[in-house]
Write a structure and sequence with these properties.
This protein is an all-alpha fold and 173 residues long. It has one domain (8-163). 51% of the residues lie in helices and 2% in strands. It has eight helices and two strands, in the order αβααααβααα. The protein has helices at 12-26, 34-45, 62-67, 81-101, 107-110, 124-136, 138-150, 159-163; strands spanning 32-33, 114-115. It has a two-stranded antiparallel sheet. α1 (12-26) packs across α2. The radius of gyration is 16 Å and the shape is globular. The relative contact order is 0.20.
Length: 173
């Protein structure tokens, strides 16, 4: 028997919405590597998986918050984090391309595999929906903004290393 199921992780439009939610919450004013946005997006979608990150000692309280989102875990068995994260990349790239076409991401930054949100104003209903959902997950949104601010992406002890989601050993530091 074949069963078709929907998974938000593999929906480019949902990824675009999550990218916008992250920008609404964290107010990204500077360019950042696309991989940073991908990692933040992964933990927005799967906040219960934040427990697996090697955190700085002052951030270990985030694990308790992450555990409180255990009810968001799917009822069935899921592949490991690396497999899901790798499969999500295609949809995340499609989401970024869509946001570039709509003018919400800079095409110039994208040429160097970076993202830069533009000053283009969001439609009122979209901005309100993002704010409502972000308020429901204010603790996780705050953690994701703190991760962006406190953790570098590459190199030993960077976010790639601490999450194990991406290879860091060949990064230029």
């Amino acid at each position: 028997m074949t069963q078709l199921t929907y998974n938000e992780a593999f929906d480019a439009y949902h990824a675009a919405f999550r990218f916008i939610r992250l920008n609404v919450a964290c107010q990204f004013h500077k360019r950042m590597p696309f991989d940073m946005l991908r990692i933040l997006d992964f933990y927005l979608l799967f906040p219960f998986r934040l427990q697996a990150i090697r955190l700085h000692s002052e951030d270990t309280g985030w694990r308790k918050i992450s555990r409180s989102y255990g009810d968001r875990a799917p009822y069935g068995a899921m592949p490991d984090d690396n497999s899901i994260f790798a499969r999500m990349e295609l949809f995340q790239r499609a989401a970024a391309a869509s946001l570039i076409q709509s003018g919400h991401l800079s095409a110039e930054a994208w040429e160097t595999d970076e993202v830069a949100f533009t000053a283009l104003e969001l439609p009122t209903l979209l901005a309100a929906r993002c704010s409502t959902l972000n308020a429901r997950m204010a603790d996780i949104m705050n953690i994701l903004c703190q991760i962006k601010a406190r953790y570098t992406l590459g190199g030993r002890d960077g976010l790639k290393d601490r999450t194990g989601l991406l290879e860091y050993r060949y990064d230029s530091v």
